[in-house]
Design brief:
about 170 residues; alpha+beta; about 20% strand
Length: about 170
């Protein structure tokens, strides 16, 4: 029995990518740098929103979870998840918050959509705590930025699209 290894995704300059703990970024360059006497091939990813640049060794790209923008089926599944009923577990907030953070940092759009769905509050429902609001906004921003790149629309338009789905 042989295990088939999926080929590493090939990234080119100008590609949009998702880094699980930071969200959507754009590959600006693939360069070689001499670090501590070793020549490394680095993938340079810019995150304009955070004004941050990451340099990831090509050998570590798969290990850190860097991926291309999701395919249509995954985005559709995430949007369908938003339409579902919120599933809030009856456990302490600190434990739930930790689970939500893990889902957001997984980089999986469907898991992020679950967080957005579970923490979404309509105008006429009770207020959220500060930490709930922070987690919700982080998840919403991640989902909106990937949707914007996928649909080739602005982040504002993606925000409106997500809010219209949630309001139903």
């Amino acid at each position: 029995m042989s295990i088939k290894k999926t080929p590493s995704p090939v990234f080119c300059s100008g590609d949009y990518v998702v880094y699980p703990t930071h969200g959507v970024g754009k590959v600006s360059d693939i360069s070689k740098q001499n670090i501590a006497g070793t020549e490394l091939e680095l993938l340079v990813v810019n995150f304009d929103k955070d004004k941050m640049t990451l340099r990831i060794p090509m050998a570590k790209v798969e290990h850190v979870g860097l991926r291309k923008i999701s395919e249509a089926s995954t985005i559709d599944e995430a949007l369908t998840t938003l339409k579902g009923k919120a599933k809030i577990k009856k456990i302490m907030w600190s434990r739930r918050a930790q689970e939500y953070e893990n889902k957001i940092n997984s980089g999986n759009p469907v898991a992020i959509a679950e967080v957005v769905r579970d923490l979404y509050r309509n105008e006429n429902i009770a207020e959220q705590s500060y930490s709930e609001r922070q987690i919700y906004e982080q998840a919403f921003e991640r989902l909106a930025s990937e949707l914007a790149v996928f649909d080739n629309i602005s982040v504002e338009e993606a925000n409106k699209k997500l809010l219209s789905i949630l309001a139903k």
